[in-house]
Design a protein that fits this description.
The complex is a heterodimer of chains A (614) and B (351). With 614 residues, chain A is α/β, with parallel strands linked by helices. Helices cover 37% and strands 19% of the residues of chain A. In chain A, helix 1 (20-33) packs across helix 5 (153-163), helix 7 (211-221) crosses helix 8 (236-249) and helix 7 crosses helix 12. With 351 residues, chain B is of the alpha/beta class. In chain B, 30% of the residues lie in helices and 20% in strands. In chain B, strand 5 (142-143) and strand 6 form a beta hairpin. Classes of the chains: A alpha/beta (614), B alpha/beta (351). Strand 17 (446-448) of chain A pairs parallel with strand 2 of chain B.
């Protein structure tokens, strides 16, 4: 049997709260440091302690980062889930388990390879304290894996040293536990296995980080000074990351005072209210939430849309509706975010796909909110927000200036003949604003959610109302020219041009390179369009109109993005084929391939690459 | 509603304040509330208080929720920005405004529906956070704009205009404010300008959360026999405990209160808060005692007014958060952006 390198899925089945996260994280980090592309996924319950939790690492030399079904190596450390864990192993795969107690006969499979290690028994004489013993179980299987998969041991021991820097007493027992596992594997198992890792250069200069951390850091760089939030999975770590980085990067030297303010609000309504109040008073501000919070914030979003106040809202989507599956991923708030609130409202949306894009969009969203004087909603999700994944490193152009939009200072006001808060002076639908307290005599206005004239005076005049609503549409058009354009790639190797495209956004981009490669093997080559924002720009219309058929791939039941495209672009619904996955794990390349293939099989006239057709 | 527009010219001998402005410079638009509405008296008192304090009229931020009370920020301080937000949410909006610029004087105006019902949560939490502001509730015990439903501050047993009794327990916002951390709590009556204006001045000078519950009768729906928020009822059962007077450092003391116990509090900013205690047993520095006193009097059908509690050395939310002295909204890339060089070590920490 040949050895395969850097291509497998390993899954760790643990009990929530048992300290496994740190050991599992070290496993992934070790491979990453060996230059091997890895994608990690936490599959965890809505629970603090006791329920099952899984950690999955996809290791792939070609850099495919999407989730792949089927487990090659199962590290089964949770008796409660043993049945399903054993069942999820691919034929020919491996089961690493604690054989201090023998495996029940019913769990035996003759198409997998069992690797038993009596971890509990081994650790009994080594560590007196029961809690320590339980924690070191995780480190011990990590040691065994280092032997089984041929991981550079120095990389792991180096990480232990870094992790426990300052708590040196913990280093020795950790290394000891690692060595126990490693030694056992060499002595009693066939190590290394035919599935192995080896050093690679495929990671390049990339970093490994989660999207929420990147978002929080991006808000620091983008100049946010007020953050108001209410705890909700999976968004909480956005605010926490902002605080963590701001506590290092935004402290005034000398006074040690903070150049930021964070309010953990009483609910999501208050969180968005604080953001709107701060932005009205000229501070860059943001909130982070998830679906239920977005629902609660809807009234305020309508106010900010109509009263024209900047605001930035991060929605880290999870599986709805209602409480749904709060620790599972989905892209199901597209419609709710696009049209949040009553009356005729719509909001610009941004769809980041990588941690780097979370960082970039965090600063961009603050610029766009100020420029467009309206809420900007960034739609991330649990898959991107809470999992460590490969990303381009963060970069900042030191010549970049914050775009604070159209704001008049006292001097500007002195030079302005007529100030009307809602006058469309420039024809782009955006008026000029002033911050409270700017000028003793000029520029004060009353902000309200009721209709008003161009000088911000209350009115119920039908003409003034319509005039204002039409101006807001002009502003919407301006928005479509400012939001980030879709990334489009068109193949030009077919004489007539490619007639079929595939459109996706956010984390649906993760498995796409692999899905496209798999489809080419089937003779299907698709042009691609990765949406990065709403309202859709002209490039999206060109893409849609230059293809007879477009697959729209997304992670919700109802094909919300497809509907948004049809609604806003007035495309023929028959030309947009919906591919949806919404079971709460992230969408896989195999799934996308299967759905496209099925459509092609049912519609034989669709063109395929000639070499496969013959 | 008054239909006559205010004349622009004013009497040449209208007194000037320390910064050379008259009361007219602190006024707002013409009120659209009912003639005789208590809220208009509160607005007038705010105009007088702000003018007497000689604060430049554009250095305020006025925020309100929804309802009759929340319309009133249009009717005072025309030179400052105002924000009529959404129902019950003034506290969160003004929290943001205060965080963005700590130098502006924040005035939040709310009503009993706005603060004691839909906005109860936000009311409680802004008090906890000790935002540096003046929080006024124009408390009329009824929903005026929707035509006379009971509000949560209506006393049990008080009747609607049509005679139906209120069946539910009332919420006392002043007692709640005392309980959850307000450092300045007062109750007043829209019809008693001589009590209200000094309280407003002291509250505007107070650092931290200053809460004033102003009983402000609704002439359209809650000013009849059977109402406990009518002009007549308050005049009859209002019990003044501590009158306050705000005295600038150099000002001559001219208050003409009935003699009682006088206590001067030297405020951290050099001004004096002079208190005239009408009940010698009342201690306005005793938070728990104040709570007790208000509740006991309430049981006897009396409404305690005046300065109920003050902590002159209170801290505010910016102290708690340890924010910089410079307003956050004045900062740009230079102060806020760590720059590309800082990213090198950050990127390294994710490798």
């Amino acid at each position: 049997m040949g050895v395969s390198y850097n291509d497998f899925v390993i899954r760790f089945a643990n009990v929530n709260g048992s300290g496994s996260a740190s050991a599992n994280g070290m496993f992934a980090k070790a491979l990453f440091r060996m230059g091997i592309p890895v994608a990690t996924r936490n599959i965890f319950p809505s629970n603090i302690q006791g329920l099952p939790t899984w950690y999955e690492v996809r290791v792939n030399e070609r850099g495919y980062l999407g989730r792949r079904d089927g487990v090659d190596i199962m590290v089964a450390m949770n008796a409660e889930t043993l049945v399903e864990d054993v069942a999820s192993i691919k034929p020919g795969g491996y089961l690493l388990y604690d054989n201090s107690k023998p495996l029940a006969k019913i769990l035996r499979r003759d198409d997998i390879i069992e690797i038993g290690m009596p971890i509990s028994t081994m650790l009994l004489p080594e560590f007196v304290d029961a809690k320590q013993r339980s924690l070191f179980k995780n480190i011990t299987y990590l040691g065994a894996l280092s032997a089984l998969l041929n991981i550079d041991f120095e990389v792991i021991t180096g990480m232990v040293a870094t992790q426990y820097k300052g708590k040196d007493a913990l280093i020795a027992p950790n290394i000891h536990a690692l060595e126990l596992g490693r030694k056992y594997a060499y002595e009693y198992m066939v190590a290394p296995l035919p599935i192995q890792v080896k050093r690679s250069d495929k990671v390049g200069h990339r970093i490994m980080v989660d999207g929420n951390t990147a978002a929080g850091l991006g808000c620091v760089y983008g100049g946010a000074t007020v953050c108001a939030w209410y705890p909700i999975t999976p968004s909480t770590s956005v605010a926490e990351a902002f605080e963590l980085h701001a506590n290092r990067l935004r402290i005034e030297s000398g006074t040690e005072e903070r150049k930021f303010a964070i309010i953990q609000a009483e609910d999501e309504l208050a969180a968005i209210g604080v953001v709107i109040g701060a932005a009205w008073n000229g501070a860059r501000s943001f909130t982070a939430t998830s679906g239920p919070g977005l629902s609660l914030m809807s009234e305020f979003l309508g106010l900010a849309y109509f009263a024209e106040i900047p605001a930035v809202l991060w929605d880290i989507q999870r599986a709805g509706p209602s409480t749904g599956m709060p620790t599972r991923t989905q892209q199901s708030d597209v419609m709710a975010a696009a049209y949040a609130s009553h009356g005729d409202t719509k909001h610009p949306l941004l769809f980041p796909a990588t941690a780097k894009e979370c960082f970039d969009f965090a600063a961009l969203a603050l610029d766009l909110a100020d420029r467009l004087q309206t809420p900007i909603i960034v739609l991330s999700d649990l898959e991107l927000g809470m999992n460590d994944n490969l990303s381009e490193p963060f970069e900042w152009d030191d010549n970049r200036k914050y775009d604070r939009g159209k704001v008049l200072n006292a001097q500007d006001l002195d030079n302005t003949e007529v100030f009307g808060r809602y006058l469309d002076v420039d024809g782009d639908g955006i008026g000029y604003r002033t911050y409270p307290g700017t000028h003793p005599e000029k520029g004060a206005f009353f902000t309200r959610g009721t209709s008003r004239d161009e000088f911000a005076a209350y009115t119920e005049s039908p003409e003034a109302y319509e005039h204002n609503m039409q101006r807001l549409l002009r502003k919407w058009h301006t928005a479509s020219t400012l939001v980030p354009a879709a990334e489009i790639s068109q193949q030009d190797n077919s004489q007539q041009g490619n007639k079929v495209g595939i459109l996706y956004f956010g984390t649906t981009a993760l498995p796409m390179p692999e899905a496209l490669d798999l489809l080419v093997e089937e003779g299907i080559q698709l042009d691609t369009c990765r949406l990065r924002s709403f309202p859709f720009g002209e490039e999206v219309r060109t893409f849609m109109e230059s293809h007879e058929l477009v697959f729209v791939v997304e992670q919700n039941r109802d094909g919300q993005m497809r509907k948004l495209l049809i609604n806003e672009g007035e495309y023929n619904p028959q030309d947009l084929i919906s591919i949806t996955y919404y079971a709460g794990l992230s969408i896989s390349a195999e799934f996308i391939k299967g759905e496209v293939l099925e459509y092609y099989q049912a519609n034989k006239k669709l063109p395929r690459l000639t070499q496969v057709q013959s | 509603m008054t239909f006559v527009a205010k004349p622009k010219a004013h009497h040449p001998r209208l007194p000037l304040n320390e910064i050379g402005l008259t009361r007219r410079d602190y006024e707002g638009s013409v009120s659209t509330l009912c003639a005789g509405c208590g809220h208009d008296s509160v607005s007038a008192a705010i105009v007088q208080a702000c003018a007497e304090l000689s604060i430049p009229p554009h250095r305020f931020a006025k925020v309100s929720g929804i309802g009759c009370s929340s319309k009133t920020p249009s009717y005072f301080l025309n030179k400052s920005h105002g924000f009529n937000s959404v129902h019950g949410r003034m506290p969160s909006v003004i929290t943001g405004a205060n965080l963005a610029n700590r130098d502006l004087h924040c005035i939040g105006v709310s009503g009993d529906g706005d603060s004691a019902s839909i906005g109860m949560g936000q009311f409680a939490h802004i008090v906890r956070r000790r935002i540096n502001m003046l929080y006024i509730v124009d408390n009329n015990g009824t929903y005026g704009l929707t035509k006379g439903q009971f509000s949560a501050t209506s006393d049990k047993g008080s009747t609607s205009k049509k005679g139906a009794p209120n069946l539910y327990e009332p919420i006392d916002l002043a007692s709640m404010a005392l309980q959850i951390g307000a450092s300045f709590v007062a109750r007043s009556f829209s019809g008693d300008k001589s009590q209200l204006v000094p309280l407003l001045k002291a509250a505007l000078h107070h650092k931290g959360m200053a809460f004033i519950d102003v009983v402000s009768p609704c002439v359209a729906f809650n000013n009849h026999d059977g109402s406990t928020k009518s002009y007549e009822y308050i005049r009859k059962y209002g019990q003044n405990v501590v009158n306050a007077d705000f005295i600038a450092e150099h000002e001559e003391i001219t208050a003409d209160y009935q003699p009682g116990t006088v206590e001067d509090i030297n405020m951290p900013d050099g001004t004096i808060l002079r208190m005239y205690k009408l009940d010698e047993n009342y201690d306005p520095h005793d938070r728990v005692g104040a709570l007790n006193y208000v509740q006991r009097r309430k049981e006897q059908g009396e409404i305690v007014t005046g300065l109920l509690y003050v902590d002159p050395d209170a801290i505010d939310c910016h102290d708690i958060l340890r924010t910089v002295a410079q307003p956050l909204n004045e900062m740009g890339e230079l102060e806020l952006c760590p720059g590309n060089s800082a990213l090198a070590s950050i990127n390294e920490s994710y490798r």
